Amino acid sequence: MAASGDLAVPRVVEAALPAIAAREGFTRPGFHVESGSNDGDGYMSVMYCIRVQNEDGDKDALHLVSKVTTPSAEGAPMMSRMFAAEGSVYSQLLPAMEEIAGMRAPLPWPRSYHVAVTGPPPHCLVLRDLRPDGFAMVDRKKPLDLQHCRLMLRAIARFHGAGMALQHLRPDAFRAMRDALGADLAAVEETANNFMRFLAPGQAVPDLVRCRFGEVVYAKLKDMFTNIPNEFLDFMLPDPEGGNTIVHGDFHLNNILYQYEKDTGAVQDCVLIDFQMARYGCPASDLLPMLMAFTDKALRDEHWQGLLRGYHDELQATLRAAGCEDPDAIYSWERLTVTVSSYSYKLGLSWLGVA
Hints:
Layout: E1 2-4, H1 11-23, E2 29-35, E3 45-54, E4 62-69, H2 71-74, H3 77-100, E5 112-116, E6 124-128, E7 135-136, H4 146-169, H5 171-180, H6 185-199, H7 205-226, H8 228-236, E8 245-247, E9 256-260, E10 267-272, E11 279-281, H9 284-293, H10 297-321, H11 327-330, H12 333-351
Parallel strand pairs: 1-2
Antiparallel strand pairs: 2-3, 3-4, 4-6, 5-6, 7-9, 8-11, 9-10
Helix pairs in contact: 3-4, 4-5, 4-10, 6-8, 8-12, 9-12
Protein name: CHK kinase-like domain-containing protein
Pfam families: EcKL (PF02958)
InterPro entries: CHK_kinase-like, EcKL, Kinase-like_dom_sf
């Protein structure tokens, strides 16, 4: 394998690259490898950026990014399960969603070129690197503006809607893909317990406001915050009233990329990345963390209903594109608003300590 650059990729990636290059029409490929992550960036994987190009330069380069498991992740059952779940999303779920909803490029997620999540570690994913196309992470220090919110909600609506269509039209195939994610009750409980260390500071909120609001308010808050572990677990489980689908499960600014116009810097598109925590659940569990934690109050006060309506319209358009004749029977506006109202209270309490 012809390679350049000072960095060597793990053998599991090296073995995959010639076949990827051949499938994409490269006849004399060279591979340039650079690091895609810094020390401490990831607890589960390391990243490599790879440029594939014919040695005589007669074909446009293909830009790839590879995620490879770390030894620490390979020794942790939960981390191994999460990496395998992401492999299942890229190899089975997303292609099935694209097919059933008739999705064409540009897709709301990166294209997958290779998935190796079984057999001896290390394991790897090879995906399209979207950075040369103008995609980047948004500045987390600034709240999302209206256009960023609309694009983000359009991407997650297409993901949710395609999952609902798959569940409605091909229930047996959907069930197998859902089960392949491994997110049964025990797995969800384990994940929720791991999140408790981030939510623990919220337990101090009643004491912080006790002097200002008095004993009656303090007692009520103390009771509410005592129930945070149960409330948070409920938030991660499917809604018993229905309207569930495959959710991203870790939907925040680190796990989406925005595309910006080269000359003006205007935001144009949004894609979802990092599906390690994908599971069967309530769509509100994706929507609310993003809308409540990464927007400001002024935007929410003015545009909350419009943003939710835009999300719901896009989800139903995806259902119709898949051939679902009655989208309201699958996921109505009323179901969305009821779950958002119910879950926003639970999520708001849970995240007070994090914020």
